[in-house]
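hiii, so i know i said id send this last week but things got crazy w the move. better late than never?? heres the sequnce for the chain we talked about at the cafe, plus the structure i predicted for it. fair warning i was half asleep when i ran it
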Amino acid sequence: MSGQLEYLKYLHARRQKQLQKKARRAAKLEAEKEAVRVAKMQAEAHEQKETAARKKLFLEQQENERLRHVHTQRKENLQEQKWNEQLNDLFAKIDRLQRESDRLEEIRVIIQNREPSLQALDWDNWLSDPLNLKLADLDFERAVEMFKRDNLMAERRKKTHGKSKKVTPKYALVFSGDRAGATDSYATTTFDPDTYELWNGFTISFWVRPDEVMNQTSVILGSKNNSPESRFKFGIHSNGNINVGIGGTNVTGINNPMEVGKWYNWVITYTGDDKGSGERKVRMWINNDPRMTSNTNTRWANQSAARTIYFGGRNTDGSYSQGFACALTNVAIYNVCKDSNGAFANKVYNNGIKHNYKGDDDLVGYWSFSEGSGITIADTSGNGNNGTFGAISGQTTAYPTWEFIGNVVRR
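okay and structure toks below
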């Protein structure tokens, strides 16, 4: 019995050792699994940390790039703004210089063309001359100097009994145009371009002051015969450009430099219908600035239209049309082409609005507008094609009006 008991104890102890050994192996295996799990968790945590760090770095780089782009764009915008400001300042300076140059040129022309009074005048009477008034508007100090100088010279002439000068007042005719509400004032003449064979070449020169916005077809002076077609007209097209109509040709694409309220000298020449192809040239200057120099398409086929010219509008088949609100003076017509290079236009412009055409060779019509009153404009070329005020339905209130524009002084 005791041997069996010992054996059973032995078996139990052995069994216990086996169980303990098995438990130790299981614990070791579990520890290894736990170590692997912990290592995996640590690796995942590390990966997440590195991912977060990379993401943070990427976001920081993105933000830095954004800030760099914003900064670069801001610098470029500031640079562009700076350049724009500099360009605007430069353009403004150029504009100021151009305006000042135009002002000085206008002052020069006024001083060149004005005639000093032969007697001492007070300020108000001195300003009655439009050129003096314009000078005062442009440069008051210089106008005062000229006023004082004029009076000083007048006193000296008085003391020294200087030779007397002939003073002739200069006038212009003011026309109403034919817009709604206008009086449709104009003047007729007996001047017929065909009588003087202007198709063989002509020159016309006149001074005009636009008094209305130039956005409708208007004629300063001229005529048109519709059938057969023949033109001799000079004015404005509805597109605002200069309009020159000669014979069968109507030119409407000439750039218009004129401003309302300012005086301009027009000179137009035609070499003649008897010239060969390419030599029938029409040229035009406004204030001696070439406006048309290469037109060679003009033809004057109808040479028996018998349409006399009107001032302040157009004689269209014997009736007034296309009136222009303007002032007009010093109209001269020659039956030859007097200018091919601008020399004649330059001479007339430099002499000013009081230029005297009388006595020139080949002059076939000259209306100096020196009357200042009445309803007749004398043709002093010697051909007697006087102008007479026209009016719609005989209304004398619709007549053009005289305007004093200064004195012409000659010894």
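btw The chain has a mean pLDDT of 87. thought thatd interest u
miss u guys!!
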